[in-house]
TrEMBL record:
The keyword Glycoprotein does not apply. This is Retinol dehydrogenase 11. Gene3D superfamilies: NAD(P)-binding Rossmann-like Domain (3.40.50.720). Belongs to the short-chain dehydrogenases/reductases (SDR) family. It comes from the Eukaryota. GO terms for molecular function: oxidoreductase activity. Keywords: Membrane, Oxidoreductase, Transmembrane, Transmembrane helix. InterPro entries: NAD(P)-bd_dom_sf (IPR036291), SDR_fam (IPR002347).
């Protein structure tokens, strides 16, 4: 990979090296999925954004545990390739692709309708799909694209599948957030572009804060149902999510890539929340990249803010009573 001019400056190499060493030094040994005996024979799971990166690694692990594994992907071609690879690697023939574009509420409804018609149960839902680095844009439904993809689409999908999950209880909902949520804000006007956080980072950060707030409110509403909901931070991970960023940012990530997590390592905290016995019965919590219970930001613990976000999300998705 050819780096942009400024990234070839010796100072940038030194700074990148120091940053990489800091990231490596702060990583604690995480839970090991290979030592977890959980078997998912007879269970059904859905992983969104499962054609690459963390989502693909999560789907691979769940398929190895003999689950009926549904890959919810936007691209038919990449999804089919991922499904074939997972079937070959795990020997599990029950790995299927269903198309889902979480930025489109129509696509979410069509996907959920297909699942409800064809699946008898749903034991694990992993809301993993996400993007960053794209310029501001509204979808044909009048929603801001990044907020729809990372937050509002998963909100609708989860709600549409709740009855099936309740009937399959015990069941788990796992939503991938980020440590960057602490720099986000949860202005509901972001969802339709009426207000716009400046730059790519604030947009992504805010969607990740919304993921945690949604999970906390969802857990409250699911009490007594046997369905749990938790969110997590996968850590700093080398995946294709950086593809929409500038050469400068991609160059920096290239320099520190030897020190950050691979997609397989970054998937560990998601798998932990999805299958580990340690998380059984725990709900409404946020887990760190080392799989430990972690206290999210003050904004992420604001119950009033979570309720307000939920109510506005219900209105925008047409779920309001």
């Amino acid at each position: 990979m050819e780096l942009p001019g400024f990234c070839s400056h010796p100072l940038w190499f030194v700074l990148a090296l120091l940053l990489g060493m800091l990231l490596w030094a702060t990583r604690r040994r995480a839970w090991d999925p290979r030592r977890c005996p959980t078997d998912l024979t007879g269970k059904t799971v859905i992983v969104t954004g499962a054609n690459s990166g963390i989502g693909k690694c999560v789907a691979m692990d769940l398929a190895r545990r003999n689950a009926r594994t549904i890959l919810a992907c936007r691209s038919r071609e990449r999804g089919q390739a991922a499904a074939a690879e997972i079937r070959a690697a795990t020997g599990n023939p029950n790995v299927v692709l269903r198309l889902l574009d979480s930025s489109s509420l129509a696509s979410v409804r069509a996907f959920a309708g297909e699942v409800l018609r064809e699946e008898k149960r749903l034991d694990v839902l992993v809301n993993n799909a996400g993007l960053t680095g794209l310029p501001f844009a509204l979808t044909p439904e009048g929603l801001e694209r990044t907020f729809a993809t990372n937050y509002l689409g998963p909100f609708l999908l989860t709600n549409l599948l709740l009855d099936l999950m309740k009937a399959s209880a015990p069941a788990r909902i796992v939503t991938v957030s980020s440590f960057r949520h602490s720099a986000g804000t949860a202005d509901t006007r972001f969802l339709t572009g009426r207000a716009r956080p400046g730059g790519f980072d604030p947009v992504y950060n805010s969607t990740k804060l919304m993921n945690i707030l949604f999970t906390a409110e969802l857990a409250q509403r699911l009490q007594g149902t046997g369905v749990t909901a938790n969110s997590l931070n996968p850590g700093v991970v080398s995946t294709g999510i950086m593809r929409n960023f500038s050469w400068a940012m991609r160059g920096l990530f290239f320099l520190i890539s030897p020190f950050i997590k691979s997609a397989e390592q970054g998937a560990v905290s998601t798998i932990y929340c999805a299958v580990s016995e340690e998380v059984s019965g725990i709900s409404g919590k946020y887990f760190g990249s080392d799989c430990s219970l972690t206290l999210p930001s003050a904004a992420a613990r604001d119950a009033g803010l979570a309720r307000k976000l939920w109510e506005e999300s219900e209105r925008l998705t047409g779920l309001s009573p």
